[in-house]
Structures are given as C-alpha cells and as structure tokens.
C-alpha cells in the first residue's frame, strides 16, 4: 500500500473515530457519567487534530482562509441538498428517526453555509 493510501485511510479512520467518541460521550452523559463523557469528548478532539494534520499533509485544505471558505461553502451547499433528499427517502421508507435526523442536519448545513458566506463577504470587503 502506498503512503498516500495509508494517509487517506488514516484520515478516514480519524474522522470516523471523532463520530464514535462523540456518540459514546452522548451515551455516557445520558447515563449520568459526566467524567467519562468529558474524557470521551477530549479523545474525539484529539482524533480531530490527528485528522487535521493528515488533511494538511494530503493537501485537502487550501492555502488561505478565503479559499477554504469558498471550498466549504460549496460543500455545505451540496450536503444541504443531499441530506434533504435523504430525508425524503427515509420518510418514504418509513424511517422517521432517520428522516428527522436528515431534515435537522440539512438545516444545519444551510446554517453553516450562511455563516461561512457571511465570513467570506467580510474577508472580501477587507481586501
């Protein structure tokens, strides 16, 4: 396996672990285990920082914040549409929990896109 493939697999693994640790933290919190929940969230952040470094090594992020905002605005827009479509599919299949998740996540993506656009406009005015 090439180094590039190992790095790509590492990025995928690290980002997946972020989701797992946050999900486990949520369960620990629901069980009243606040200390464990906090520790699991800290591990999630450590894994996120690992992913950050790998993303930089792989060149997945741009050189400037302006370029990164533009890239992510496009990504958030696509994610918004994809999640809305997934919500429709989940409703058709009778999976209410998945439908509600995708509807909420689609709205989150729209909010993210709007916030990023606000920062992008501000940066462009400052140039």
Outline the structure in words:
- With 127 residues, the protein is an all-alpha fold.
- It has 2 domains: 3-58, Ferritin; 65-126.
- The protein is built from 4 helices and no strands.
- The chain has helices at 3-30, 34-58, 65-92, 96-126.
- Helix 1 packs antiparallel against helix 2 (34-58) and helix 3 (65-92) runs antiparallel to helix 4.
- The longest helix is centred in the last third of the chain and has 31 residues, at 96-126.
- The radius of gyration is 18 Å and the shape is globular.
- The model has no long low-confidence stretch (mean pLDDT 97).
In summary, what is this structure?
By secondary structure, the chain is mainly α. It has four helices and no strands.
What best-fitting shape do the alpha-carbon axes yield?
A: globular
Strand proportion, as a percent range, falls in under 5%
The radius of gyration computed from the alpha-carbon positions, rounded to a whole number of angstroms, is 18 Å
Determine the N-to-C terminus distance.
Answer: 44 Å
Key terms for this structure?
mainly alpha, Ferritin
Give the topology.
Elements: H1 3-30, H2 34-58, H3 65-92, H4 96-126
Protein name: Ferritin family protein
Domain Ferritin-like diiron: 1-127
InterPro entries: Anaerobic_Peroxidase-Rel (IPR052773), Ferritin-like (IPR012347), Ferritin-like_diiron (IPR009040), Ferritin-like_SF (IPR009078), RevRr_diiron-bd_dom (IPR045236), Rr_diiron-bd_dom (IPR003251)
């Amino acid at each position: 396996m090439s180094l590039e493939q190992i790095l790509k697999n590492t990025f995928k693994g690290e980002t997946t672990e972020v989701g797992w640790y946050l999900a486990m933290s949520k369960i620990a919190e629901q069980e009243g285990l606040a200390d464990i929940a906090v520790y699991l969230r800290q591990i999630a952040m450590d894994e996120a920082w690992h992913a950050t470094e790998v993303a930089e090594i792989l060149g997945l992020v741009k050189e400037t914040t302006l370029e990164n905002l533009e890239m992510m605005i496009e990504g958030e827009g696509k994610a918004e549409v994809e999640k809305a479509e997934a919500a429709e599919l989940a409703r058709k299949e009778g999976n209410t929990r998945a439908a509600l998740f995708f509807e909420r996540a689609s709205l989150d993506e729209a909010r993210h896109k709007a916030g990023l656009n606000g920062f992008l406009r501000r940066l462009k005015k400052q140039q």
